[in-house]
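I had to read the description of the data format several times before I understood it. For illustration, here is how one protein appears when written out as sequence plus structure tokens:
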Amino acid sequence: MNSTRAATRVLGSGWRSVRSGRLEGGRRGISLKSLFAPSPPGTGDKAKARPLVQPGDLFHALSKSPVKEMREKGLLIQRHGCCPTCVDETTAHGQAATREPLFECPSCGYPTHCSEKHWEADRRHADLCQHLREANEDEHDLRSGRTLREFEFPSAQLPEVVVNLSSWDTFLYT
């Protein structure tokens, strides 16, 4: 192998140059870095797009979210969900609950109950509310359009400098 061109194996799909990132035949290899790395500048329809949600303003009720997918998620929950308080009341009488969760919890932003009265009466929701709020903020962050620095991984390692983990002696020596 030429010393100026180091090669590595990429997920069983052929040899590629570490520098070029291209497989034989000009195709691009698939790696974790390529899945999470930002697209090259000037490609795609979101080149230099401004994030929908700013990092300090991540919490939004689903119905008032600036992200279209989150508003659709809220509508999906309202359409197919049911109020947990109504389920508890109607199962005691032997009837199926049919009320949709139209009231959005002000703490977590999810439509959880059919009315504010049922939301106040539900003690179990308080246990889940913080987790739902965290999920709401995380999902808004992921869909905000900002560059996710958390998923930027180092590039492929050169075969000449691979760390040997077969034993402590070889690990500490390399």
